[in-house]
User: What shape does this take?
Amino acid sequence: MQQSIEDIYKNSYEKNSVLIIGCGPQGILATKYLYKNNNIICIDNREDIGGQWLFDQYNEETHPNLEQSAFYHYYGVLPSSLYENLQANLPKFQMTFKGFPPKPQYQDFMKAEEFQEYLQDYCAHHQLKKYMLFNTFVSSVRLIKNLSEEEKQNANQLLTKRFLIEIKDSSDYRQNIRYLQADNVIVATGHCSVPNYPKISNLDLFKGQKQHTHYFRYNYLQKLANKHLVIYGGSQSAQDMLFIILKQTDSSLHPQKITLIANKGIIDTFRQSLAYKEEIENQKLALAATDVKGFVSEKSLILESGENVENIDILLFATGYQYCFPFIENSRDNLIEFVKENERKNCFGPLYKRMFCVREPNLIFLGMTFNTATIQQMFERQAICAQRFIDKIISLPSQELMQKDFELDLQKSQYNFKDGRDFFKVSHFTGQKIEYEYSKQLCELAQMQFDEEFNAYVKNIFVPIAENTVLKGNYPWMKQQKVSHLIPENYSPKEYLF
Assistant: This one.
């Protein structure tokens, strides 16, 4: 009888053991770089690779066994899924792994299903799925040295490693509970599942529909027809909502009016938009550069500016996500702490280089950064850093020095927002200075070369596109841009550089 990957992992003692949580892009990269020299297993709650790129037709309203779902039981929501037919916000050359170019027939700004196919091809090429375990939920990660005698006995095995991991069936959190051990744990679960909800006074007064973009599926568009939709927030999810609703949906399903409420910088950008000029001029798209103060009746709210927004049918929150790791948070090991505002978990630490847990460096977080214009290349560098640390090719500074480095990074990130929300934000569209700085830190840590060619393409091709579209309120135009003719055919970052 052929052994399962779980049994092979459990019964292999001769190699250093690594448990990876999450089979999205970052978990795939970690698996690829670590399997050669380590005994690894990559575990995912879903039935296949891809993370949020794997489209899930179910949400909390339609899931057939919601109360039994392990993810829902521990997180209070289901894992996020990108919308149908969504296009990426970056050209495909910036989303490719080194040495593995995307197919030339893919759109320059790939659809989600194209990138999902790319991930499948990458896994097949490197034969990675034999190291992966699906439909399995990680419910606890504990330091063995801190376990009580009762907890050690419950594991029902000789404990010889650093971590004890509890896993169970993802379809039912009460079923098939068992334990694995690991010398190292990599968390690659992403940070787009637990929605943020800003504090709004008297929200219970509102009698219309309240929804977060987390729950959006295309069938939701039918609910918007001839309604007054208020979108609160102006970042990428809000941009995608406006693009889908106003530019990709039949006019018969359009709302009667959309009011976008966001900060002044975002609204000022929209005011100069040519892509939405017609909608803004005829008041189909109204703009409010402020925050919501509270509701004053069952269909109206007041803004911090003192203005009222009337006759609201639907309030859509495009307000981002929290960082959430119940498999670590619920333990007594005290490995991470969150920077919070109104119980919203904006960031966490202490982490060295936004990756390594300072209090236990063998616990490594990958892919937590956001707003990066070199999305997969940055995450690939993180995976290489983790691999070279685990394989003892590189070493980390002392705990004291790592703590100081984290505190300095956190302090810098609080220049605009004291609540820490920018800690994992490593770039802005203009100039990419912060991202380059962080990428170079990863290169220095892992002792790899900086890819000057790739970054020149980003600076000379993508940055001007972003400046002429997104930064001028013309987000819908960005994804129509053609860039493949500006870079070498079948391009991907050079394998020998990093």
Remarks:
- The mean pLDDT is 93.
